[in-house]
Amino acid sequence: MAAAAAAAFSSSAPSPTSPSRLTTVSSSSLPSSLSLSRDFHKAQLQAQFKSSPRRNLCVCASSLPPSDSVVTLLDYGAGNVRSVRNAIRHLGFQIKDVQTPADILNADRLIFPGVGAFAPAMDVLNKTGMAEALCAYIEKDRPFLGICLGLQLLFESSTENGPVTGLGLIPGVVGKFDASNGFRVPHIGWDALQIAEDSEILDEIGNRHVYFVHSYRALPSEENKEWISSTCNYGDTFISSVRRGNVHAVQFHPEKSGDVGLSVLRRFLLPKSFPPKKPTDGRASKLAKRVIACLDVRANDKGDLVVTKGDQYDVRENTEENEVRNLGKPVELAGQYYLDGADEVSFLNITGFRDFPLGDLPMLQVLRNTSENVFVPLTVGGGIRDFTDSTGKYYSSLEVASEYFRSGADKISIGSDAVYAAEEYLITKVKTGKTSIEQISRVYGNQAVVVSIDPRRVYLSTPTDVEFKAIKLTNPGPNGEEYAWYQCTVSGGREGRPIGAYELAKAVEELGAGEILLNCIDCDGQGKGFDIDLIKLISDAVSIPVIASSGAGAAEHFSEVFKKTNASAALAAGIFHRKEVPIGSVKEHLWKDGIEVRI
Fold first, then answer.
1. CA–CA separation, 159 vs 174, rounded Å?
2. Which of 16, 294, 312, 509 is the most buried (most CB within 10 A)?
3. Where do the record's region annotations for PRFAR binding lie (predicted)?
4. Is 542 helix (H, G, I), strand (E, B) or coil?
């Protein structure tokens, strides 16, 4: 994969020649309702600008000389850097892609959005001669911004698939979070920073959350303390950003941190356009619980991609026409949910098991279009698997996932393929390295891999009736059964498999999954609340984050699942699509109930 990435480094980066010096998004290029929403959002921002002397002094990139509006981007060919590109263009800058080490040395300003695992990234940098050029550039105190892995690579080494030697510019070793203290690993979500003085590019963050997604971190020490511009506490205190002169790097993702993150990029790109720091309001104190909007996307009977919603996975209306339930257009709805405050947007291509993903161009275009204006994490699922096409050409699940990442996805969700992989692993106890979970997590890191579990309850008289993990139910079954096990399904819930949700969750964590999306067929579309018994079972069994899904019908259901289980996030679809409960109302309710959320 490192060799493939090195080849992609010089050939697959998008051309920087397309027009990109735009200070605003053209409303004519957006769906009508999203355009109206953005006009309203723009009016709100204009009102803020009028009331804030500090912001009136901002300079747009389009007013700069042409050479000053160009950003050099180091994209080594792995992961989703489309969102970074979109954020840079959103701020009015053009992009020049690095093709040779000389491009680094000649850059006026350089952004390195490192994505994936430490070892493959260093391998590509060394083989292409970029590592030496990077060190020379940074040592001359040239304007530099590293993002996520782009921060970690500055350190001496990492224990990820290693030890692996880094660029060695900052003293310290990048190590994995310790999950033994009860903290979920990966560290995924919106967290608070402790910002040092003179942080410069962080000056507008204040007490607001920024988005993290990583399993490894660098710790503060006497040797590197002069570099540290902010820290974050998650089990222990780790370095969330560094600064020395014109050199900056952040562990969080500014391109995925909404308006707060865009302020970080803006201050890096236009450092002389801002007066001294002014306090910013905010409530962030720790890792927030996430509220995720989910869009089930499929083709309707006319062939158009629409957002739909199932009732126990049945997405067709109960009418004579029996048409696919149509709740809106995916790009339009995703944009609205971003404006409404969704912490993440998840797309599930529910026709994915019938269509080859690399040929699923409409879904890829949905991702590309969404990522242009939505600056929070995007997850996509459906059809992530190995495949041999009609000509006999073989595509690995890694190649399939890579296409989604290049189109704008930050995480991919694996469903049926994860079930088959877990079944085999539980029988053989051997990690072959060939499963989709192992392939993708090895290159992109386990934080990029979500496993979606679709179980249904099977009621029991006694817990010993099956070989799988059974639990005592809070509410008895239809015939008074006190116990149940949760049978996993594949193919959109149509086929039951001989594996329980508990066994599957434990197995996929061992194989390399970084997060679990936990659905429940029995609760889907019912609006009576999440399956607390199931979510507590799984979230107590694994050390990776668990997303609760299926059944939300009121804001109170979100606070219930966060108070009664160890879920890190809660996902809903229908109540948001039908505007029964706005995202803002859910978050306001959670905050008033004492649950940390991003406001």
1. 6
2. 294
3. 415-416, 452-454, 524-525, 550-551, 573-574
4. coil
The single residue listed with the structure tokens 């804030």 is: 52
Please give the Cα distance from 383 to 397 (Å, whole number).
Answer: 9
Residue 263's alpha-carbon distances to 20, 249, 274, in angstroms, are 19, 15, 11
b (16+ CB within 10 A) / e for 8-36: bbeeebeeeeeebebeebeeeebbeebbe
Annotated binding site: 148, 383, 519
Cis previous bond, 186, omega within 30: yes
Give the number of C-alpha atoms closer than 13 A to the C-alpha of residue 38, restricted to the C-beta side.
18
From the centroid of its chain, how far is CA 247? 26
Whether residue 515 contacts residue 188, with contact meaning beta carbons closer than 8 Å, is answered with yes
- Residue 504 burial by Cβ neighbours in a 10 Å radius (0-12, 13-18, 19+): buried
Quick check: is 148 catalytic?
Answer: yes
**462: part of which helix (H) or strand (E)?**
none
Mean pLDDT of the residues in the chain: 85
**What's the CA gap between 569 and 292, in Å, rounded?**
7
Catalytic residue among 214, 248, 253, 557: 253
Annotated binding-site positions for substrate: 383, 519
Helix (H, G, I), strand (E, B) or coil at 195: strand
CB atoms within 10 A of CB 423: 17
pLDDT of residue 315 exceeding 90, the answer is no
- Give kind and range of the element (H or E) at residue 501: helix 501-511
Task: Give catalytic status of residue 253 as yes or no.
Answer: yes
Residue 389 falls in the annotated catalytic set: no
Active site residue 454: yes
Residue ranges for the known binding site for L-glutamine are 148
More confident residue, 590 or 14: 590
Question: Which of the following is catalytic: 417, 454, 524, 533?
Answer: 454
Q: At what angle do helices 436-444 and 416-428 cross, to 10 degrees?
A: 100
Angle ∠(508,509,512) on CA atoms, nearest 5? 85
Task: Calculate mean pLDDT across residues 4-33.
Answer: 37
Name the pLDDT band for 466 (thresholds 50, 70, 90): very high
Catalytic residue among 160, 191, 204, 296: 296
- Determine whether 311 is an active site residue: no
The C-alpha atoms of residue 199 and residue 209 are separated, in whole angstroms, by 16
Quick check: 569 and 189 in contact, CB under 8 A?
yes
Nearest to 296 by CA among 380, 419, 369, 378: 380
Give the C-alpha separation, 499 to 399, whole Å: 28
Distance from C-alpha of 165 to C-alpha of 125, rounded to nearest angstrom:
12
Give Cβ neighbours of residue 430 (< 8 Å, ≥ 6 apart).
Answer: none
Predicted confidence (pLDDT) at residue 443 exceeds the cutoff of 70: yes
| Residue 71, both tokens | 């950003």
Instruction: Please give the DSSP secondary-structure letter assigned to residue 308.
Output: E
Give which of 157, 231, 229 is closest to 193, Cα–Cα.
231
Place of tokens 């990109």: 20
Question: Exactly one of 75, 97, 123, 148 is catalytic; which is it?
Answer: 148
**C-alpha angle 398-400-401 in degrees, rounded to nearest 5:** 65
Among 97, 123, 204, 255, the one annotated catalytic: 255
In this prediction, residue 304 carries a pLDDT of 65
